[in-house]
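Support reply, case 0932

Customer input (verbatim):
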Amino acid sequence: MDSNSSPHVSQEDPRPLSQAAGLQSGIVSVWGLVSQSIAGMAPTCDVVAFMTAGAAFALVALPLSYLFAFVLMFIEVNTLYHLSKHRGSAGGYYSYVSAGLGAKPALVTAIMVVFYQLVSVAGVPIYVAGVFLPGLARSYLGVTLPAWFWIPMMLVFIGIPWLLSVLGIRPTVKAMLLTSSLEIVFLIVSSIVIISRAHIVAPLHPFTFATVGIKGVALGMIFAITSFIGVGSHAPLGEEAKGVRTQQGRLIGKAAILSLTLVGVALTISAYALTVGWGQTRMALFSKAAAPGVQVFLHYLGPIGAVALVVLAINSALMDDLALMTSTARVLYAVSRDKLLQTSFATVNGKRAPAASVTFVGATAIIVGLIFGLWLGPAQAFDVLTTAVLFGLVTAHTLMNLSLMRISYRERRLTQLVFHLALPVIAMGLFWIVLYETVVPLVFPLAWAAIFWLLVLIGAVAWTYVKLGGGRGPSDKAGHELGVATDTSPVETINKLGLWRET
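Our regenerated output:
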């Protein structure tokens, strides 16, 4: 074989490179996976966007909403950790649900993951360019940006990540590794300084239900949980992780624990710093102010601290879209490789990046953003899209938990009962309680999020029936191996092994 040829592609293989080659293996280290996950959670962007929106409901209990969300997601990461141990896959959650529940729930999971990550790609630039930056310009520069400013800026916030994504995984991971580390250090250090300088009368009051009750904290958790949605965005990089194939999945679990710990600590302490820095008795005004987070940083850290927050927040939004586009594109790639979606998504370009999938994600996110932004306005569009993201996330994670429980239902050891059965049940219960508190009673415009999610879910179930109903699709055995490339070829999945049934 020519030394310059791909080790996965035979010289006699008549297929073009885009079909014969797969994703490039052995590229992403464990810290690269951690940075992808951190970038997907976009901590600095959360501080200026999600915390501002969440404070409208949680008020002084904003830190409690973030603490509960952190604990809930830590319980949920248990499921990701155990399901990913033995399978490094471009399908991520799609592959994990396939292992326990089979093909039909796996396909629904994949569509839900694509849904909530794609909607998040649309929502973040709407807020940053439609609410945060105009408020900043008006308050600090005396400049009123045009009402349509968010539209071209959304193209920028999605276009730059698209370009990096199609250039391959190397530049993508390098960009995220540098900025993710900087964000975590900046948020923790600056928050400690703010807390040390603030006049705190009742230090534990932000961690009580006294002011807003359970419903206020739960509504704040919508935005707090959504701040963590990218915790599993590194899972679809399993096939590109370093190490032997049997160990790639273990890196996914370790990276999830590391990234969630770092971001959870940074966001919880940041929420507390903003609350005590703004003034606990004044939190009703926090979400109504223009860029309140910047105001707190300016007051306690001066112009340098405020400018650093703004710059890192803008970069964080870019990296968030980059991480989620990278992740979503690989899920589409894996599902299409199994012939369950448009097969053109299962191709790579010369940089071994799934360019067709990335382009679809970017283009669709722009369309979704434009529809909701023009219809509801940037502020309400962000609230609705963020709530829709939570619905999709809870649906996918519920199926993940059920998959782990199904795999482990015969186990009798106490430790396995705790990690494989008890914790998944607790996570599902808490997720659905938060959703219930969010939408009952139905109040518009947030109710549009539930309708949006329900329409997509119905479409996902219908598509699953079309592709897998009536005996179509993979055999029962192969249905538990979806999204996983074989050891001999990155594209030789179940449909290449004679395990596919046609009507």
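We compared this against your earlier run and they match. Two observations from our side: The CA atoms of residues 373 and 381 lie 5 Å apart. The longest helix spans residues 292-337. Please reopen the case if you see a mismatch on your end.
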